[in-house]
Amino acid sequence: MEIESFQALLTDEGQTLLAELRDFKPGEELALATRLRRKHPAELVSAALAQAALRQRARAKFGSADRQHSGEDTDADALYFTPNGVEQATRRSVAEWRAERFAALGVRRLADLCCGIGGDAIALARAGIAVLAVDRDPLTCAVAEANAAALGLAELIEVRCADVTDVDVTGFDAVFTDPARRTSRGRVFDPEAYSPPLSWAIGAARRTPFGALKVAPGIPHELVPEGAEAEWVSDHGDVKEAGLWFGTKADKATEPHRATLLPGPHTLTGGRLPDPEAGPVGRYLYEPDGAVIRAHLVAEVAEQVGGRLIDPMIAYLTSDLLVPTPYAHAYELTDVLPFNVKKLKALLRERGVGTVVIKKRGIGITPEDLRRQLKPTGPNTVTVIISRVGDGHIMMLGQPVG
Ligand SMILES: C[S@@+](CC[C@H](N)C(=O)[O-])C[C@H]1O[C@@H](n2cnc3c(N)ncnc32)[C@H](O)[C@@H]1O
Fold it and tell me: Are residues 59 and 22 both part of a single domain?
């Protein structure tokens, strides 16, 4: 996308076209383009069609916290995107959580280094924080600027097109960096290959009273530096990102890890308890949220539910007590047996089970393959949890609680 074709979308004619294309259906492009080209320049029609498609893709990310799954009434229909921008932007719920944390720390002025199309900058400005939003890509900057204006946040967001390494952050309360973790060749796994590299972003976060940066959820814990707090964030059970925070006073010496589950938010801190003991499977099985597992806070959840691991290497907890917790899904078990497909098939048939929810850990089967083998039929539903325990595998049948 060229800057000129993007800017043409901001004209009255561009806006009319975007409004007309708001809910176009996949497959209609050709007919729509032919019809619209009779009245509008071909280049503008192509840019509007591409933008309308990006907005539709962005609806899942840019809904409000409670609406993003419905796909209705979202920021996405007011914002502008680039293909990379929509891919790399922080989803609204997570950006709002981060902004809330910065605001609670008293941050009023923040440098958003690597702002992209403005996913984070928008949430920060909505939390009342004045943002200097920096990106080195001119088209991305034009899009970020248009986004600030589209949401009435231009007063709070100043967009600067520059390399972040040239930006002076003196006088800011905080720096936030969201490095690019993709190149034209795909995803980058080495944090020193991020742009800018992780070590640079850590240095930048330490230059102001508060600092944060976004990293991949798979970041090895050894890479969390001294003086930093690491937070893993999930949204509706999917782990979305990890963040390193500086200046929050939570660090390796106190409570180094945090798991935040959205919506909620539910925040669990800790990281200093020893691993829970392993023991026999009890009446309830607890499946900790992915953010809890990534943050190594399973022991904290075990303590809450009076639980033990079913195996030292597997992140399923078990207990004879039912203790409600937002940090794990609980299942009441009816059967615990050695894993055997034939036996499972017979059990499901006997119980008239047509819907099987399959969960698994420590075993190389896919739920789809297993479901095909089971061919379940009947009116009832069951959850089957298959796990490695010791040298073998077990299957646990039950129902979700709560
Ligand atoms: C992951 S995206 C940021 C997404 C953003 N937080 C959001 O929610 O929309 C990373 C951005 O960093 C920019 N970038 C990478 N290296 C940079 C550098 N050295 N200076 C300025 N911008 C850079 C890229 O152009 C890209 O837009």
Answer: yes
